[in-house]
Amino acid sequence: MDKIPIFIVNLKKDSERKKHMQQLCKQHSLDYQFIDAICGKDLDDNELKKIYDKKRTLSELGRELSAGEIGCTLSHKEIYRTMIRKNIEQAVIFEDDITFNHRIHDAISTIADFPDDWECVLLHYHRNNPFAKFYCISPYNRITVGKNLKIVRFTDLMHSTGAYIINLAGARKLLSALEQGVYKPADHYTGDENEINLYGLHPRLVETDTMIHLQSEILIGRNIARRNAPGLAGKSKKTKSKMDIFRQLLKKIGLHELFRKINLKRAEIAYFLKNIKHCLIKPKKYT
Fold it and tell me: Domains of the chain (ranges plus CATH)?
C-alpha cells in the first residue's frame, strides 16, 4: 500500500521538526524520505532575479513574497523536477508542521479510486478567508472513495502545501508554471484549479500542528510582507492609531469581546454570501 514515495520538505536547521515527522511516520508505519528545503534567505539578488517575478507578484498579490515563501515554492518545485526526472507516477508530499492519525493510510490506499482526470488531491487545506468556519465544497462531483471519505471539488481557493498527493501530469504542469517565474506562494499553485486539476479529500485528514506552525519562518515572513504591502504603508500608522484608541475604549466599557464576535460573524456571513452562488454552479470539466 505504501509503495508510493512520500517526500517530506524540511530545512536542515529544523532538527526538531525533522524529529517530529520521523516519530509521526514511524508511529503510522510510513516509509518516507526527507527533501532538503531551500532557504529563501540564502538566495542572492542575482538568483532571485532569475526565478522571482516581483512585478507580477505586486500586481496580482498586492505585496512582495517573503524569502521564506520563495524558498518553500522552490523546494516543492525541486520535488516536481525529481518526479519528472525519475518518472515517478505519483507521490505524497508533506511539510514538517503537520499531524495526522491512522486514517492517512485511507488516503494513500484510495488513490486507485481517484477520478481519471485528477492531478492533485489535497489532504490538508484551509480557506482563503480564515474567518469562515466552513469549507466551500461543491455539491457536484463528489465521489465516495472509502468509509466516510469523499473526493470533492472546491468552489474557492483552498491553500495548502501541508499535505497533498500529486501525479506526474500535475508535476509537469506546476513545473512548467514555475519555470516562467515564481510570482505567488506554493500553496497558491496547488490550491488553484486554474493551475492544476484539483480535488480534495473530505473530511480533511491532515491537520496543522499549531505549536510548530506558529513558529514558522514562512508564516512570520508572510505576515511582515502583508503589513508592508504597497497601499497600506502610507496610512498604516494613522489607521493603527485610530484602531488602538477604539479598542482601548471598547475594553474600558466592556464591549471589546462583543465587537470582536460581531466582526467575525459579519466576515463569515459575507464569505458565505460571496461563495454560495459558486456552490450552485457546476464546476467546469477538467481537460
Answer: 6-225 (3.90.550)
Q: 214, 207, 111, 130: which is closest to 162 by C-alpha?
A: 207
Cβ(69)–Cβ(182) under 8 Å?
no
Q: State the cell numbers at 133.
A: 468556519
Q: Which cell numbers hold the place of 145?
A: 472513495
Distances, alpha carbon 109 to alpha carbons 105, 106, 194, 280, in Å: 6, 5, 27, 31
DSSP one-letter string for 219-233: HHHHHHHHHT-TTTT
- Return the ∠ at Cα 168 (arms to 166 and 169), rounded to 5°: 95
CA 185, 120, 196, 176 dihedral sign is: positive
Count CB atoms within 10 A of the CB of residue 194: 9
Question: How many CB atoms within 10 Å of residue 115?
Answer: 15
The pTM of the full predicted model, rounded to 2 decimals, is: 0.81
Mean pLDDT lowest among 40-49, 201-210, 253-262? 253-262
